[in-house]
Amino acid sequence: MGRLEVTALLFLLTANAYVTNSQRSACGNPEVADVIFLIDGSSSIRSQDFEKVKEATATFINKNEFGKTRMQIGVIQFSTKPRLEFQLDQYDDKAVLLKAVHQIRQLHGGTNIGQALNFTIDYFDSSKGGRPGIQQYLILITDGESGDHVSEAARAIRDRGVNVFAIGIGAANHAELVTISGSQDQTFHVDNFGALKDVDKCISFVVRSPNAGSNPEVADIIFLIDGSSSVRSQDFEKVKSAIETFINKNEFGKTRVQIGIIQFSTKPRLEFQLDQYDDKAVLLKAVHQIQQLHGGTNTGQALNFTIGYFDSSKGGRPGIQQYLILITDGESGDQVSEAARAIRDRGLNVFAIGIGAANHAELVTISGSQEKTFHVDNFDTLKDLDKWISFEAHSPNAGSNPEVADIIFLIDGSSSIRSQDFEKVKSAIETFINKNEIGKTRVQIGIIQFSTEPHVEFQLDQYDDKAVLLK
Question: Which residues form the signal peptide (predicted)?
């Protein structure tokens, strides 16, 4: 999935102001993330090389900003047994954090990576200082082969939505490293410990899926499909066919993509939940067997019904990217705004696809942005579904919009600005608002106007409804 770059911005808008955007590199560091270093302290590592591991960790720390609302770092060392050095929320002062790294003493002993992975998984939980729902990373650094089995423990930690990078030095078992990270792209092998000083340059903090229109590698996706009487039976079959095409282009399973389908008309009906099928042939058969409901079009009720099916109790994997894809040909018979906002406030990416006479404004209200709303003339166009939906975390490029941020506009309202130009400032802010997701867990907007004296127009948490905010 695309990089999640989260920024807090202060815009100063005055008559002569300008903005410069600086593009972050492909291997840039995250701004909001939980990162645990799992470092090998076994006897096969010389003391001077263990110091180089610590130095690499310290270099990484020096290049980032830390705190409860920024990046959090934890370190776990392992040999025969693992040992917590410090958990994610223990230090938010960089100087204290660097001192804690410096004071780590090598364990010595064997190399039981499987046991260390099992020990580590819980330290991403909120009870141990983790922040499930934001990006979480595990960076394993080892020079050897594990003395115990790693595959089940590695799969369990990835199933929690944790992005795992495995870095091997010298004689480390490369195949085992790939088993741990789950991907060649997230496995690195260097000749010596001196190369670790550039760890931040070789690791890309992204949620795999760099291209617009590309298919996700790890995601929970629920299709919410309109089965009302306004959809002709042959067109309902085309909706199913589009989903089958999408399934055929992806890899499925507990550690890859999971698909669920909910059909709605007057009432919603679960066809199958996210973790029900991990065999592609069985999944395709289940789609083929879906029978159209007929009835009205209560999209709001369907959205409220759907939200719980992204929870872990219903097969969802909170912490990885989760998507809802709505497909409808009509206008809802009930209210959609509150239900749509609730589902987006859970961190879900919502795409709304309308066919024919569907209400476009309502679709935008549901998805939360024009960029995630699509309107096509007929059901035949759905066959290209995967080509126009971008499975990314909405910030692949410099200048893209934040997903979670507090933003205050500080705008010049002095007499030097003509009234028509002041209206243009307001119009620019309205455009910005329309392009973002607004709410307590997404983007919050505040405005302060100044001239001789400053004046608070509204503070950050005052409005979480986009329509009210625009007004």
Answer: 1-22
